[in-house]
Amino acid sequence: MKRKANPTLIGTFVVAGLALIAVAIITLAGSSYFTRKERTVMYFSGSVYGLQVGAPVVFRGVRVGSVESIEVSYNRETDAFSIPVVASLDSDALRGLDGKHGDAASDSELALPALVERGMSAQLSMQSLLTGLLYVDLDLRPKRVASTHGTRRGLTEIPTAPTAIQTFRDQLEGIDLRKITDDLAAIAASARAVISGPQLNQALSDLAEITATFKRVSERLDKRLDPLANELQRSLVSTRTAMDGMEKAAKSVNESAVGFGRTSERVSDLLAPDAPLVQNLQRAANEVSRTAGALREATAGDSQLMVGADRALDDLSRAARALRDLAEALEQQPDALLRGRKVNE
What we know:
Layout: H1 7-29, E1 37-44, E2 56-59, E3 62-70, E4 73-75, E5 80-90, H2 91-97, H3 106-117, E6 120-126, E7 134-140, E8 156-157, H4 164-174, H5 177-196, H6 198-270, H7 276-298, H8 304-332, H9 336-339
């Protein structure tokens, strides 16, 4: 006889299987089902080849979300295509980026616009050179120019910035290579015409003549350079000798000036009002003044000296007359001294 299935045992196995499935889902998915997400949009103007749904959204190496969808949008006003990339970001991570760790749901909604105002922008970067897969790199780039569109409602837009490779590629695309090639061809044709023309040959001939002339002038200068150098050397020696003489003369003048200064100091000391020489000269001047006064008084008309002098002059006058008479008498009578004077009858 066959045994009947035990409903209780079957129910236990079913419940245990469902529990295992739930644990596996929680383990594999992590806590993503229990984490509040905030959706955002980013508009890229260039190619996003290599960016896939589920690609990481990273802020300075830390994953803060993932890409949800990638679309293509056309703007009739600007006649341009853009690639809107929708991503879901972790609200807790956003609150951490803004420096807020509150429990309110509105904190994450306010954190992302604040970060955008501070200069946050999105940029595509390569995960691996082998696979060529891209990811979205978020960072604060206040000095870079970022573009916005603002066409998705209900989603916070993060501005996008082109990568260095995209910028370089745009610059290359803006270069007119055809025109550059034509210009190079024209320059090459002009150079070929100049090289093959007679002007270049004439210029080369003139350059050869100029070189030969310059060589001859150099040889003449070399021949005259030695005598000029010797003469210059002699002039330098003479100049050095003259400078030495001037230096000696300057020293002599300096010594004379010093001696003159000392002499002037001595003369100043001698001519000082309280110097002995000045006092002696002052006393001599006083004596001469007194002597002149006495002489002036003695030579006055009514002074005794003048009266005596007049008398002496009279006596001398009479004596002179007597001597003149004696001389005349001796001249007439030479023997009068022996015989005496003859008396006239």
